[in-house]
Amino acid sequence: MALLGVNIDHVATIRQARRTVEPDPVWAAALAELGGADGITVHLREDRRHIQDRDLEVLRRTVQVKLNLEAAIAPAMVDIACRIRPDQVTLVPERREEVTTEGGLDVVGHREATAAAVARLRDAGIVVSLFIDPDPRQIEMAADLAVAAVELHTGEYANAATDTARHDELVRLARAAALVREVKLVLNAGHGLTYRNVVPVARLDGMHELNIGHSIVSRAVLVGFTQAVREMKSLVC
Ligand code: PXP
Description:
Blueprint: E1 3-7, H1 9-16, H2 25-34, E2 39-43, H3 53-62, E3 66-71, H4 75-84, E4 88-91, H5 111-123, E5 127-132, H6 136-144, E6 149-153, H7 155-159, H8 163-182, E7 186-190, H9 198-202, E8 207-212, H10 214-223, H11 225-236
Parallel strand pairs: 1-2, 1-8, 2-3, 3-4, 4-5, 5-6, 6-7, 7-8
Pyridoxine-5'-phosphate (PXP) binds at residues 7, 9, 43, 70, 90, 92, 100-101, 131, 151, 190-193, 211-215.
């Protein structure tokens, strides 16, 4: 089975709703480690809508497992990554108006910019992964760019409306996974994975690591809600 990278962006989303100090994603990272997370993942977006520079700096000093930074290929983001030196950088596409990452990075269409970002990160001694669609052309280009790993975008699988569509997307992921193994890249996957849909993806041959965020944060809010209310009630009554 696969390793689990826990994406804590949406802990920061709750904090940023009030621009306050709680909940602190740094605390969430520590709790995720206690729960067995093999890695902590954060996406420092160019618009800083959730994770802030301070979070990344403190996480770099406190996370004991692998720290994976998701970042756009923009030179300013690569500068930050080279300064902070996470264990891994996953290059992702970014559009300001999107609610979440909407698809893989088009490394075929953005070959030169991706190659420049990869070279700088690799020179800084950082493991580079590319978040790409499960598309053979993207996988072959990732191999050409000599990165260490790819993260296959599982969003289409997660969003499939019918069992047939979900099955078709799983077959597509399995074929892509076979090609990733063939070109000898590390196989990661993520996006939209939940407690209900994760198992078939975790069982794909050679799956190394899954990055999961929204579903874990959503469940954490609910499983902790009763206790949080009980504690407040004990203060006010
Ligand atoms: N992997 C990548 C590259 C992502 O951009 C995201 C979302 O930030 C995830 C995984 C996690 O997706 P989700 O929050 O849907 O689990």
